[in-house]
Write a structure and sequence with these properties.
243 residues; disordered N terminus; Fv1_restriction_factor
Length: 243
């Protein structure tokens, strides 16, 4: 009877417990590994470590959801159809000056249209100026179309006066506001202040206002001259509301 007691109780229980433990570990480990591999998106799936864990999935590189490195905002990728639509809307017209085109581009796109280098190249020739178009495609990392255009125009022209020369006389209030906003864009192109990218928020200087008066109808000159005082600091938007 003693041999039956030893063989029937201790060995089977010990082995079954060991096998159960092994089964539990073997079932737990693959399951945990798979769950970690799915959650973290790691390519190996063999040795998921704490540095490749799913604690910060947004920091992993992904072509589907690119993120802005500085602000952390999600950048939408454009399809070829989208880019064709942008090209149609943003291309400079045959009778449109560069400075007028810049104002229209700001109104249409602002700083919301973010493009990487490949997407910018797919847009093709927007300005119909080889120097500007080439510079727009140079930056590979994502940035706004507005930023690309401003930098490109700055490479094309020497100073703001080169853009001012493109302006024509104005006769209506709408045309006068357009000329004033064109001047603001010219100031932005050659400004070192990267925080001022909105032409409507540019300070309207006395020099800008005098240029506007000279471009306007003679019968408006006296009224316009007293509308802007040299000591006041008003934006282009403020002065446009007075016209």
């Amino acid at each position: 009877m003693p041999p039956d007691t030893q063989s029937g109780v201790k060995p089977p229980d010990t082995q079954s417990e060991a096998e159960a433990t092994d089964d539990t570990q073997s079932e737990a480990e693959p399951t945990d590994t798979k769950s970690e591999a799915k959650s973290t998106g790691t390519r190996s799936g063999i040795q998921p470590t704490s540095t490749q864990s799913g604690a910060q999935p947004a920091a992993t590189t992904s072509g589907a959801q690119p993120t802005a490195a500085s602000a952390g905002d999600t950048i939408e990728s454009f399809s070829l159809k989208d880019l064709r639509g942008l090209r149609k809307d943003y291309t400079r017209r045959p009778d449109e000056s560069i400075i007028s085109w810049l104002v229209r581009l700001w109104d249409a796109a602002g700083e919301a249209t973010i493009l990487d280098g490949t997407e910018a190249r797919h847009l093709g020739s927007l300005s119909h100026d080889p120097v500007i178009d080439q510079e727009m495609m140079r930056e590979a990392s994502p940035c706004s179309l507005w930023e690309r255009v401003l930098g490109s125009v700055a490479q094309r022209y020497l100073c703001a006066d080169d853009l001012y020369m493109q302006q024509t006389q104005w006769k209506t209030i709408e045309q006068g506001i357009q000329r004033l906003r064109e001047m603001a864009v010219a100031e932005i192109v050659f400004s070192d202040d990267i925080n001022t990218r909105n032409p409507d928020l540019v300070s309207c200087t006395p020099v800008m206002w005098r240029k506007l008066v000279r471009l306007g109808p003679q019968e408006y000159s006296s009224a316009l001259a007293i509308m802007k005082r040299d000591e006041t600091e008003e934006t282009v938007l403020d002065m446009a509301k007075k016209l």
